[in-house]
Amino acid sequence: MLKGLRIQLLGPVQLCAGDRPVPIGGPGVRGLLALLALQPNRIVALDDLIDALWNHDPPPTARTIVHGNVSQLRRVLRSAGTPEARIDTAAPGYRLTVDPMLVDVHRARALFERAEAAPLVERASLLREAWALWQGPELGGVPESVRAPELADLRIAVHGARVDADLALGRHEELIAELTTIVRAEPRRERTVGQLMRALYHSGRRADALEVYREAARAASEKLGLDLGPDLRALHAHVLNDDLAPVVSGIDVSRVVPRQLPPAVPLAGRSADLAWLDEVAPVGVITGPPGIGKSALVVSWAHGAVPRFPDGVLFAALRGFEAPVPVAEVLAQFLLGLGVPADEVPEPEGERLALYRSLTGGRRILVVLDDARSADQVRPLLPPGPDSVAVVTSRARLDGLTVSHGARVRALEPLARRDSVRLLADVAGGAFEEYHSQVAGLCGDLPLALRIAGARLAAGPAWTVPDFVAELASERTRLAALDVDDAGVRAALDVSVRGLPAEAGAMFRAVGAFPGPAVGPFVAAALGGVPVVEARRRLRVLAAHHLLTESAPEVFTRHELVRLYARELAGSSSLRPAVRYYQAAADVARRRLLRIVDPLDFSSVEVPVPALSGFDDALAWFVAEWPNLLAVLEGAAAAGLHDDVWRLARVAHTYRVVRPRWDEWQRLVALGLAAAEACGDARARFWMLISRCAMFLTFDLGADALADASAALAIAADEGSRTCAMIHLGCALNSCGRHDEAVECLMRAASAAGTDELRGQALANCAEAEKARGRYAEAIAHQLSSLEIDRRLGDDSYVVVSLNNLAESYLGLGDDGAAWKHASAAVELASLRGFLLQEAVGRLTLGRLSRRDGDLAGARLQVGLAAELHSRVSPRPPAEVLTEMAELGLPAAPARGDEG
């Protein structure tokens, strides 16, 4: 990885290609690179960049300077041949798209986090690798206003952890010189002072260790008027008493040593989870959804950890989500295991607890508590001794144990696919290996499901296996295929859902009807008929019980088998509340994106919707909710809610006008048009024909657009609809090369338009047609009138179209200065708003102007960027872009179809 691109922030800020630093410019450019690299793959607002670079006191030309520095960095990245990184313009600023592991800060942080869960030797190696990334003071060579104090905190944390690991490995003498230098420079770093004392003590230099403490105490007293902290004072006492080495209490061999663990089952994978358990103390909680393998993991680990606990291992199945075992009963079981005769076990629970604590207080013992329901069920059973460890499994997070006992919590994830296949092979005895990968995927890599599937593969005759795989492949029968003697996946989920609070159980069933990949509080509120704040609370309760996962703020996802189970519980619950929510929310969002000409209005629908303050909020909502919206559309279509489907398709259509993408738009329009045909509503068919016509026009499919516009005009029911259809018909005629007819049709539409919105559209498209037949002066006149309307209505999406059309008309008229001015303004606005196709149009014009001026390098840059922008939304750039590319000697741009 490090042989390619590297971005260095831990030292002088620089870009490296291999081992070669790449010159990037002065402090301003370096500061910009640092600010973007600190947040890779995230948008950094232009205003935030300016504030950071000039400490909230920018010069008047700050925006121009930043734009120039961005261009400089882009040129550097291209010239260095580093395709691993690029700088994208993304409203409201810029985003550095790069693998975070190529930025030394994020690599150091990742190594530090990996080290926390690694065994000691590996931990030391990871921390040394992280520490080696520092090449000097952080963010060297940038303006003084650019600061990231968290980097100094990271440096201190990595160094301290690295030294702790080296001390644990016995590298005492090797550390003395390094730590001495730091302590002399920073005597208030108590952790480092303690590390130096340990290194000196274990190197046989006890007197020097005591002297280090005295110097630190003197510095704290004289400079701060404070005493040293309790940890350092305790360490001093141990050194003073010459007893710093750990004291291990002796083992009473006459005492019974309990070994209560149930048999272990084979594991596949889970190496990181096992390593985490190796390091946990004093309390660890393994949590996760039912069937994820919590008990199997902990029991398997505990068998291997027995030598670490010479005083025994206690185990209790608490059955917290079925019939919880009383604490008194578990205490009796533990006391018997510790050798207390049955007739001497006290009856009162308090006396049992006191005896249990007395017997375990001085021992090194492991207590495994399986399937706990709550922290209250666990607390009395925790061993009190400082050398003992308790490991708890639960379907809930048990946050209360973190508060009261400093418990560390680890949530299990489904197995990696290769481990799922290995587990299947282990259980199935190698039978029917050709099905293992497919079956693992259908089981969602859930260990319980994998063991059941493996058992069925092992037991079934060869001719029954294809039928079993077919059962798994069908969503209707998958859970039934994973049932075994009332102990299957459905039974495990039943236990979890029965254990939920009543309101959370109701919410689980309500969202079971939701077909989307992720559910949020607003749609959950609509489905559950509760306020948004209550829906949010209930969703988080479900997440705490691992029936949902909050994969991002207020974004809740489900394991595939949980989704199927929830759908069964939902039964015939209506999807209509979700449809109504998305109609209302999408209607709010589309009105922030574009001016609306259809009469659909969902403002009276009584569902809570997000507050979307402007274009950026609305666009972000559509990007996040698009997969859900399509899933709801398809679910509603399957349920026969045709009238709702076409309306939702129409309001969602606006997003694809602003962010055109052929496959997604085509899917949306097909659903809406099919629903319009099914409900037999002429108005529905009209508006869906208009939507499909707009899609065809966007992708230059004139003949198809002409057919739809003509059909729409034939069924238009009122003057506004007829005008709208005539505008689309004129655009289609123009796209087909019938420019004179287009102008006539569009001028009639402009005269008939009853609103500014329709008149502005008609004039803008009339300008397009006039431009196409070479009447540039007429085109400019129409376009200026349209631009005036666009600006008065405050619609940036139409403003940028008007600017591009003016630029092209001025180019045809031979007024290069006016063309450059309007094309530049169009590119700037389109880039700010993320209008990819309109930015491409403007850049093509700039490329043509550069070529006309003899600036071939500038022409290639602009035309290449236009082609790349087109490739993000359509399979192939339009003919005019391909022609310019060929004439400039540019290779064909790859199609990517990136979202948003």
Automatic annotation (TrEMBL):
The keyword DNA-binding applies. Gene3D superfamilies: P-loop containing nucleotide triphosphate hydrolases, Tetratricopeptide repeat domain, Winged helix-like DNA-binding domain superfamily/Winged helix DNA-binding domain. GO terms for biological process: phosphorelay signal transduction system; regulation of DNA-templated transcription. GO terms for molecular function: DNA binding. Keywords: DNA-binding, Transcription, Transcription regulation. Pfam families: BTAD, TPR_12, TPR_8, Trans_reg_C. InterPro entries: AfsR-DnrI-RedD_regulator (IPR051677), BTAD (IPR005158), OmpR/PhoB-type_DNA-bd (IPR001867), P-loop_NTPase (IPR027417), Sig_transdc_resp-reg_C-effctor (IPR016032), TPR-like_helical_dom_sf (IPR011990), TPR_rpt (IPR019734), WH-like_DNA-bd_sf (IPR036388). Residues 1-98 bind DNA. Residues 1-98 form the OmpR/PhoB-type domain. Belongs to the AfsR/DnrI/RedD regulatory family. This is DNA-binding SARP family transcriptional activator. It comes from Amycolatopsis thermoflava.
